[in-house]
C-alpha cells in the first residue's frame, strides 16, 4: 500500500500545490495593498502572542485558511512593517517582486550546493553573479573569478567578517611559524563607528579583546577613520611586540553614515602587511552609480570587500556578497574534506566548493535570487532606484536644514539624514530628542531610530524602503514638526 492511501497524507501534494500557493500569494498581495493601514512599529507588549495561540502543537492538521487567519489576527499585529513606505529606521531590508520570485525559486528547488557536484548550477551561477556584481561596482579584476580573485554569497556581513578574520588569522599564524600561542599577539583595528559585528567576529575567532583597537573619530573627519591615528596605533603595537593583523573599514557606518577613506587606509594596510576588509553592507549598493563609485577608490588595496544586496538592492533577505583578492587564504582556513563528501570534481581542483568559503556546510541557492533581481531590473533601473532614494533624502535634508529649531548633526553622505532638535539652554538634548522620537514612533505613522556620535544623540532618517515616495517624506516632515511643537511646549512649561 502506498503511503498516500494508507493515511491520505501528502506533504508535497502536486495536485493542491498551485491552489495553496495562490492563496498565500493573494494573502501577500493584500498585505502589500494594505500595508499603510498598519502602525509601522508594532505596538504589542512582550509576551503578547502566547495569549492568542494554543500552548502546544495541533495533533491533527490545521487548514491553510485557519493558519492564514491566525497570521492575519495574531502575527500581523506583532510585526514592525519593514516594507512600509514610512519605515525610515535602521537600514532597510528592501524587497521587490523579482527578489520575492527569486526567493520562491530558491525555496522550490531547495538544493544544498555545498560543493560543486551537489548542484553544479548553484555554484556556477553564484560565481557568475558575483562577477556581474563586481563589474557593476567596477572592482578591479583581482576580485573577479574571471581575473585572479573570487567571491561567495553569505547570509550576512557578520559571517563575511568572521570568515575573513579567520583567513587573516590563519595566514598570520602560519607566517609566525605555526604556533597557536601567537594568537595573543594579533591585533585588529576599526574605528569607534564600526559595526558591532566586527567585535563579535573578532571574539569568535579568538582575538583577545585587549587587542581590539578602536580608532577615535570626530566631527573633524565627519566620523570617518583618520589614517594617521591608525598608523600611530599600529606603530605602538609593533613597538610593544604585537602583530597588527586586520583593519575593518566601513563605507556607510550605521550611526551616521560616515565613509572611511579607503585609499589612505589601504596604503597603511599595505605598508604594514595587514588584511584590509571593507564593510560596505548598506552603501555598497550606491557604488554601482558612477557618481558614488569614488567611495570605493583604493579598493584595489583591500584584501576583501562585502556588501548586502538585502539592504538596499531590492533583494529579499538574506544575501551578502563577499569578494576576496586571494580566496585561497579563506579556503586554507575553512576547508575540510571528510570521506563522505569525496568526489572527482573536487579532486580535479577545477571547481569551487563553496562549503570551504563559509562557516556552514549547508547553503541556500541565493544566487538565483540575486540573478533575478539583476536581470529583471537591469543595471539601468537599479541605478534609477538608488538615485531616486538619494534625491528624496536630499529633499528631506533640505526641509530639516531650513527649520531653525533643528540641526543636521553630521552632513548626509548618501541616504541617511542625521538630525536633531537643537536643545535650548538648560534642556538635555538627549532627553528632548528621545521624547520627539518616541512621539513620532508611537504615532504609528512612521518609524525612525537613533544614533549617538561624540555623545550627541540624534535621529536617523534613512530613505530606502522600496515603496517610499516623495509624499511619504512630506508626511514624515509634517509629523516631525507636529510632534516637535508638542515636545518643545512640554519642556518650556
Ligand atoms: C547592517 C550592517 C552590518 C551587519 O550586517 P548583517 O548582514 O546583519 O550581519 C554590518 N556593517 C554595516 C555597516 C551595516 O550597515
Automatic annotation (TrEMBL):
InterPro entries: Aromatic_deC, PyrdxlP-dep_de-COase, PyrdxlP-dep_Trfase, PyrdxlP-dep_Trfase_major, PyrdxlP-dep_Trfase_small, Pyridoxal-P_BS. Its cofactor is pyridoxal 5'-phosphate. The modification N6-(pyridoxal phosphate)lysine is found at residue 311. One of its GO terms (biological process) is carboxylic acid metabolic process. GO terms for molecular function: carboxy-lyase activity; pyridoxal phosphate binding. Keywords: Decarboxylase, Lyase, Pyridoxal phosphate. CDD domains: DOPA_deC_like. Belongs to the group II decarboxylase family. The keyword Lyase applies. GO terms for cellular component: cytoplasm. It comes from the Eukaryota. PANTHER family: GROUP II PYRIDOXAL-5-PHOSPHATE DECARBOXYLASE (PTHR11999), TYROSINE DECARBOXYLASE 1-LIKE (PTHR11999:SF169). This is Tyrosine decarboxylase. It comes from Gossypium darwinii (Darwin's cotton). PROSITE patterns: DDC_GAD_HDC_YDC. Pfam families: Pyridoxal_deC.
